[in-house]
Design goal:
It is a single chain. By secondary structure, the protein is an alpha+beta fold. The chain has a single domain, classed as 60s Ribosomal Protein L30, Chain: A (2-Layer Sandwich). Strands 2-1-5-3-4 form a five-stranded mixed sheet, sandwiched between helices. Helix 3 links the parallel strand 3 and strand 4. Helix 2 crosses helix 3. The longest helix has 21 residues. The relative contact order is 0.22.
């Protein structure tokens, strides 16, 4: 299992510029521009990543994505983040990911009713023999996300 956590402002700002629905630009200039933005994000992601664990080997990988991003469609950053995170797979090819779970929690500023959450991106890769760990991680994220909206202090 490997866990990659990115909460640096540079990477969070850059991921907003490479949302997947913008990568289907029609003009060559727009495509070059988007490819440049994606390359900058990938470099920032690698530079700012806090990594725990070792690259996962095998051809049956389970990915768990957790995004805590403001004003974001739940599916927008997935492809750009996966392309940036595939360097943490032993084979460096995302085709080995056979199952994926994605969670989105929107950050809010602190108030009397809701706790403050800084934006972040977290990607965890599990080998198929770690299936139970992947399910536990998904449950942990789901409960944390739910508790964010239930907190009263």
């Amino acid at each position: 299992m490997i866990s990659v956590h990115v909460d640096h402002d540079e990477a969070i700002t850059l991921v907003k510029t490479v949302y997947a629905n913008k990568l289907n630009a029609t003009s060559r200039g727009a495509r070059y521009s988007m490819n440049t933005r994606k390359r900058k994000f990938t470099q920032a992601f690698a530079r700012c990543a806090k990594v725990q664990g070792n690259p996962v080997e095998g051809d049956l990988i389970i990915a768990v994505y957790h995004f805590c991003l403001p004003r974001c469609d739940w599916d927008a950053p997935i492809k750009a983040v996966q392309d940036a995170a595939e360097q943490f797979l032993a084979c460096r090819n995302d085709r080995v990911i056979k199952s994926a779970l994605t969670f989105l929690t929107r950050p809010v500023k602190g108030s009397k009713k809701r706790q403050e959450r800084r934006p972040f991106i977290e990607v965890s890769f599990f080998g198929y023999d770690e299936f139970d760990l992947a399910i536990q991680k998904a449950e942990e994220i789901g409960r944390w996300s739910h508790s964010c909206w239930q907190s009263k202090s």
